[in-house]
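[Automated response] Your request has been received and processed.

Submitted sequence:
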Amino acid sequence: MNTIEKLKKIHEVLDKKLGEDIVILKIEGISTITDYFVIVSAPSERQVKALEEVLDYELEKEGVTARAVEGRSTAKWILVDYTDIIVHIFKNDEREFYNIERLWKDALLIDVNEL
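Generated structure:
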């Protein structure tokens, strides 16, 4: 599965599971840590954890395994690293507090329909 197919699948899974305010940022050329960020939020820790679990399950079915996952214990901000894509799953208030979209304001905002 290439990067664009992965982005589409990640968006589809998060959207279907009612992830809120899904944003895709292209940071390739701005940072060397990854090519894309996918940022999504949910109103509760339980929903944050559910988004991560279903994402892991659905991508594993496609043969895609996360290189690392951080934040499961608190489920306020879970980071899932797929090497070329890093998914940030936030509880709503944590997303507002950290506002990583602002931190990466030079990144290109990607419309999933244009992928």
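Summary generated for your ticket: The radius of gyration is 13 Å. Residues 45-61 form the longest helix (17 residues).
If you did not submit this request, please reply to this message.
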